[in-house]
């Protein structure tokens, strides 16, 4: 197994893959977000990023100054149905406030209704706005896409030039990440890699236990290889998972 692969070490090794997330309140959540930022740096290892609503980006930037923890926020969230000008204005404001990663929801509803230009019409301007300023992760909401063929087709469309990650879910829909959804995205990303493009994978939405990580890890390695298992190409969006990893015994 790859020496850098967290499954070759202790559960704590997974912490560096986490986008530690709090998307519970759009306003008046300053104390909880401050506590989240404290959790992000207080343990035996640092997370990859915190993921919060745009209103708290400036607070997170101040609290995490001097660390290498990325500040992720969301756009077109959670339904993927906001007007383009509203999305771009929100992204620009988040970038000014210090966001370094933008998790934007693809307009999956319009896409499933047959508007095959909806994804490019939104994602391409977001990518252009974020160029050299922030990574772009595109959220597909795979739990609401009914078939493997549709999930893979949407994934191919969402992997626009300049997109750094495809992300399974918002965590706000009825279904979040699933084994089938992760498998579909991993297969699409493997084909992109074989064609010379490296796009990362973020698994989010209901990821709470190390047992789930083991399952998703197996899917990723089988499709993309052990070298893909690094924070630059694999992230886990979660909140309570951090506590589970810190409480888990180290492997002997």
Question: What order do the helices and strands come in, and which of them pair?
Answer:
Elements: E1 18-22, H1 30-42, E2 49-52, H2 57-63, E3 70-75, H3 84-97, E4 101-105, H4 108-112, H5 118-130, E5 135-139, H6 148-158, E6 165-167, H7 179-194, E7 200-204, H8 210-224, E8 234-238, H9 241-247
Parallel strand pairs: 1-2, 1-8, 2-3, 3-4, 4-5, 5-6, 6-7, 7-8
Helix pairs in contact: 3-5, 6-7, 7-8
Please, could you describe this protein's structure?
This protein has 252 residues and is α/β, with parallel strands linked by helices. The chain has a single domain, classed as Aldolase class I (TIM Barrel). It is 40% helix and 15% strand. It is built from 9 helices and 8 strands. It has an 8-stranded parallel beta barrel, surrounded by 5 helices. α7 (179-194) links the parallel β6 (165-167) and β7. α3 runs parallel beside α5. The longest helix is centred in the last third of the chain and has 16 residues, at 179-194. The mean pLDDT is 94.
């Amino acid at each position: 197994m790859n020496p850098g692969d967290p499954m070759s070490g202790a559960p704590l090794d997974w912490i560096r893959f986490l986008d530690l997330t709090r998307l519970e309140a759009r306003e008046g959540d300053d104390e909880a977000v401050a506590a989240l930022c404290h959790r992000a740096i207080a343990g035996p290892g640092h997370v990859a990023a915190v993921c919060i609503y745009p209103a708290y980006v400036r607070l997170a930037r101040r609290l995490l100054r001097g660390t290498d923890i990325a500040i992720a926020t969301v756009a077109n969230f959670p339904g993927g149905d906001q007007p383009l000008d509203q999305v771009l204005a929100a992204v620009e404001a988040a970038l000014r406030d210090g966001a370094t990663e933008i998790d934007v929801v693809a307009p999956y509803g319009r896409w499933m209704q047959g508007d095959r230009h909806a994804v490019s019409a939104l994602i391409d301007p977001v990518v252009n706005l974020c160029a050299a300023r922030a990574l772009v992760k595109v959220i597909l909401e795979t739990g609401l896409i009914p078939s493997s063929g549709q999930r893979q087709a949407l994934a191919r469309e969402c992997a626009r030039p300049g997109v750094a990650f495809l992300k399974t879910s918002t965590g706000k829909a009825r279904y979040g990440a699933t084994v089938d959804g992760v498998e579909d995205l991993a297969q699409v990303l493997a084909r992109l890699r074989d064609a010379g493009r490296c796009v990362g994978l973020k698994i989010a939405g209901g990821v709470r236990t190390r047992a789930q990580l083991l399952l998703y890890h197996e899917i990723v390695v089988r499709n993309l290889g052990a070298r893909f298992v690094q924070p630059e190409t694999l992230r886990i969006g979660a909140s309570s998972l951090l506590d589970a990893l810190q409480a888990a015994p180290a492997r002997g």
